[in-house]
Amino acid sequence: MNTIRSDFSIAPLPFPDALAAACLQQFQTTPPLVHCLTNEVVQSFTANVLLALGAFPAMVVEAEEAAQFSTIANSLLINIGTLHHSRAESMLAAIQAANQSATPWVLDPVAVGGLTYRTDFAHQLLSLKPAAIRGNASEIMALSGLATMGRGVDSVDSSVSALPAARQLALQVQTVVAVTGEVDYITDGLRDFAVTGGDKLMTRVVGTGCALSAVVAAFCALEGDRLHHVATACRVMSQVGGQVSQQVAGPGSFIPAFLDGLYQLKISDLL
Amino acid sequence: MNTIRSDFSIAPLPFPDALAAACLQQFQTTPPLVHCLTNEVVQSFTANVLLALGAFPAMVVEAEEAAQFSTIANSLLINIGTLHHSRAESMLAAIQAANQSATPWVLDPVAVGGLTYRTDFAHQLLSLKPAAIRGNASEIMALSGLATMGRGVDSVDSSVSALPAARQLALQVQTVVAVTGEVDYITDGLRDFAVTGGDKLMTRVVGTGCALSAVVAAFCALEGDRLHHVATACRVMSQVGGQVSQQVAGPGSFIPAFLDGLYQLKISDLL
Amino acid sequence: MNTIRSDFSIAPLPFPDALAAACLQQFQTTPPLVHCLTNEVVQSFTANVLLALGAFPAMVVEAEEAAQFSTIANSLLINIGTLHHSRAESMLAAIQAANQSATPWVLDPVAVGGLTYRTDFAHQLLSLKPAAIRGNASEIMALSGLATMGRGVDSVDSSVSALPAARQLALQVQTVVAVTGEVDYITDGLRDFAVTGGDKLMTRVVGTGCALSAVVAAFCALEGDRLHHVATACRVMSQVGGQVSQQVAGPGSFIPAFLDGLYQLKISDLL
């Protein structure tokens, strides 16, 4: 069904600076309240990233409250990195309430593929209409049909190799998919954008990918073209991360510098 | 019953430097062991704040152990930010053991008001004699009777607008209430103090309020006038936070600088 | 059975630089994937420490997945700092799978001794053949038979006073024991090494001991003499921690500087 857009030879266009700047302006004008059901390891960093950008993070975890809060929040993040049965129930309750109140929700399918429990859960979530999905190449390939076509699914897959899977997944689920890596690709299955930037140092800091998914969720709260909003989330994180990586001595000093960079980011910095 | 002290026109006195200095000296002489049952997002920052001040944090979470540890610890913090059923049981077990062994415990009623489960739980806890309660204006108003008198309960309430609620809550529960914000007010319902300082930047760092509640719990371990001890906890955090905010580039570099500032704090710095 | 090596007068030899350098080279050549079932407070710092050293941390917590992942990982860390029933089940499942697939696992018996639930659990784990145990003096004494011989078990015990307990525990369990403090002692019951370095400032940063246990687990993934590998883990953390402590203003700035130091560590720095 998706033969044309699976063609590797059609290279995605760079995401235009002017669109990114317009989206960031919209974001800063109406900073969203983001409900984060995310993994245990990255909660603090995730909250600090959202706060640095001017958004309002909140983690409400008991099922009945998570559902109640999803109707109040502007968007919802579901990250399955440290999934367990009790939290999975809360996630389902939160997603159902989000869908009933038209709160967009975003899936980060951490480590989907090799591990059975989370892989089954993530596939179940696909039917619940995520507004966007953000993952690395291996995760996006594992979530899509292409991933079962005999390719090795591991973290050394490059993001471009997962672009056909991302496009197919976006069409299947009717969502926006961001497959991130050295280059980030953002697609709704019919249109794609590429975002460059970032730095390998970011892979030595826990939670940079998870925090990006939270920022994607935050941008999904905006009215307008979701493909542009998700691409802007990627752009913001890649640009600040890339710049900061040049200025620091290692992954330890990256963390405070990155948060400062997000806090200081101006719309004109994207132009 | 509380008509006089609800009068807005009686402005609280600034908390005297000499009292703060004496309390800090007492604290440094007998650094407390603080049992923290706090939310998932802020556990690491909370522990680092207590360690920087010279106190000893410990998080013991299974109900039977939490109860056992409450009899050993010098004080107990209960923060309901990421409350769930299993942790709520541990909190109740810890509080009951704390009360039986005269270990003071402190309540941080995170986000009480809009969310039903935690609001019911927090009201239940009020009957279990907290030594102190620390919250923002909206939380304190939601916990007190005044909060139901038609006012909007949200995070834009200023702390002074919650002072009548704080006084009433303190009298009702026979506790010390700290309602914190641009100015912190600390009251036992009959006496109040004001603590200035801090900086808006602190609202862009996750856990500064939660960590303050842990420091309040630490100071509640001291013998003497609890109102003074709670006010000193607020003073220490406001002073160091305010100073550090002037020296840093954003919320990222605030975190290490704040911990360093707490670590370096001398009694003479309060005078 | 252990009378000779319990003799206090036989001082352990310093761990040779050349052995440490060779182990670190082996580590950097084959950076391990480390499954961490660790406490809630230190997960982020633990992951960042492993990433800074070039290893790959992963936290997979639901019992069935934890078991599945233990067969894939190169080693497993079990830290009982915030033990609760559900996580204890996951730990047992992970350990059993690890043992079936010859994945080495390491025990950090946080706060064992005074608290009944975790103490019983830790003793149960001893029969499941940990590759190494890393604890402070009080914890190692509590785990061993010597600990019940009337000595006070508290955190002021020096590591040298726990050396006989460490040797006995190592022989009993047929494992490597690292008892860490101002000096670290690493023993398999028949041979011991001493590692100096570190700094008192590290006791004011939450998770330095827990992160050391994760690094011990990472080094236990290596082929060869496990005693040397565990000693190298201690050496790396002590050396970087000691150097960094001289350069920072307090525990806040220690954290980024420590991670940077681990990231920048060269084999020649150990010689």
From TrEMBL, chains A, B, C:
Keyword Transcription attributed: no
Pathway connected to this protein: Cofactor biosynthesis; thiamine diphosphate biosynthesis; 4-methyl-5-(2-phosphoethyl)-thiazole from 5-(2-hydroxyethyl)-4-methylthiazole: step 1/1
Residues where substrate binds: M59, G207
Record keywords, A-Z: ATP-binding, Kinase, Magnesium, Metal-binding, Nucleotide-binding, Thiamine biosynthesis, Transferase
Keyword Transferase assigned: yes
InterPro entries named among the record's database cross-references: Hyethyz_kinase (IPR000417), Ribokinase-like (IPR029056)
Taxonomy, superkingdom: Bacteria
Residues at which ATP binds: R134, T180
GO molecular function, one term: hydroxyethylthiazole kinase activity
Pfam families reported for this sequence: HK (PF02110)
EC number: 2.7.1.50
Catalysed reaction equations from the record: 5-(2-hydroxyethyl)-4-methylthiazole + ATP = 4-methyl-5-(2-phosphooxyethyl)-thiazole + ADP + H(+)
Cofactor(s) needed for function: Mg(2+)
Top EC class of this enzyme: transferase
Family under the similarity heading: Belongs to the Thz kinase family.
Function: Catalyzes the phosphorylation of the hydroxyl group of 4-methyl-5-beta-hydroxyethylthiazole (THZ).
Protein name per Swiss-Prot or TrEMBL: Hydroxyethylthiazole kinase
Gene: thiM
